[in-house]
UniProtKB/TrEMBL annotation:
Gene3D superfamilies: NAD(P)-binding Rossmann-like Domain
UniProt-listed InterPro entries: KR_dom, NAD(P)-bd_dom_sf, Peroxisomal_Beta-Oxidation, Sc_DH/Rdtase_CS, SDR_fam
Species assigned in the record: Marinobacter profundi
Protein name as annotated: 3-hydroxyacyl-CoA dehydrogenase
Ketoreductase domain residues: 10-206
Length: 306
């Protein structure tokens, strides 16, 4: 029986790997035999500031356990940053086999009070950051005929949430981007999938705990540790998952979900064409029973995961 580790010989970039899900993923990647580029600018939850300590601490932890990793402090928000992050893998380890787009920030505010800066700052990290790093790796993946993208989305976009228009837009944008990457790169042996994680992290550490109900909710979320998400992310980087692409997964404690994707399920047809009056009198009333309610993630995931 071979003692070869699951990801032995692979080099994986993890963005936002200094804390939380990114950190847990980087550690498990290394434990599984991969060499890891630990990217993190060390910013606050809103994306502000810089601190090299978190990324370097993860690298130190990986090396202390016998693995191999390098820290990178470039920002995913710029084209140049994305190029440098990928180049760090090439310069240090001579190749790149996967990108886990995990870097994130939050600027939660109710929509009618959201500023342009609030909106742009979140899309810059989540959506543009996913593009920048993935686009930097794509030509290399094409040339070598293999590669993996794992992109973090959220049920805040897939289902909905209060006060997160910027975050939801970015996370749904990542779904479309990931699917396009899967379609365009499939011929080159490249996969691209999304994960919607449920896990306690500093990005959701600002949830209010003003009532006993809120305290109980936070206590449950705190039990959903980042290593649960890391397990699926690492699995998707394996050659054994090379036929899995274009999918949206969710992880909630010990549950793993496969999400549906939008497809038409009701139709209305008329041979003479529609007018605004007939749309209002015939189409909308016919569809109304199947309209989706304004649900939040917590409304859909209403059962206890423990």
């Amino acid at each position: 029986m071979s003692d070869k580790k699951l990801l032995e010989g692979k080099v994986i970039v993890v963005t936002g790997a200094g804390r939380g899900i990114g950190r847990a993923t980087a550690l498990l990647l290394a434990e599984s035999g991969a060499k890891v580029v630990v990217n993190d600018i060390g910013g606050g939850a809103d994306g502000s500031g810089n601190d090299a300590t978190p990324a370097q601490e993860v690298v130190n932890e990986i090396k202390a356990a016998g693995g191999d990793a390098v820290a990178n402090f470039d920002s995913v928000t710029s084209w140049e940053g994305g190029q440098k992050i990928v180049q760090s893998a090439i310069d240090t380890f001579g190749r790149i086999d996967g990108v886990i787009n995990n870097a994130g920030n939050l600027r939660d505010v109710i929509f009618h009070k959201m500023t342009e800066e609030d909106f742009d700052a979140v899309l810059a990290v989540h959506l543009k950051g996913t593009f920048n790093v993935s686009r930097a790796a794509a030509p290399i993946f094409r040339e070598q005929g293999s590669g993996t993208f794992v992109n973090m989305t959220s049920t805040s976009g897939l289902i909905g949430n209060f006060g997160q228009a910027n975050y939801a837009a970015a996370k749904m944008g990542i779904v479309g981007l990931s699917k396009s990457m899967a379609l365009d790169m499939q011929r080159f042996g490249v996969t691209s999938n999304c994960i919607a994680p449920f896990a306690w992290s500093r990005l959701i550490g600002s949830i209010p705990t003003d009532s006993e109900e809120q305290k109980a909710r936070v206590a449950k979320i705190q039990q959903m540790t980042p290593d649960k998400i890391a397990t699926l992310a690492v699995s998707l980087c394996s050659d054994q998952a090379k036929n899995v692409t274009g999918q949206i997964f969710g992880v909630r404690n010990n549950e793993i979900f496969l999400f549906s994707q939008p497809r038409p399920f009701r139709s209305a047809h008329t041979s003479e064409g529609w007018t605004p009056e007939t749309v209002l009198s015939r189409v909308l009333p016919a569809f109304e029973a199947d309209f989706y309610p304004l649900s939040r993630s917590a409304d859909v995931f209403s059962w206890d995961p423990f």
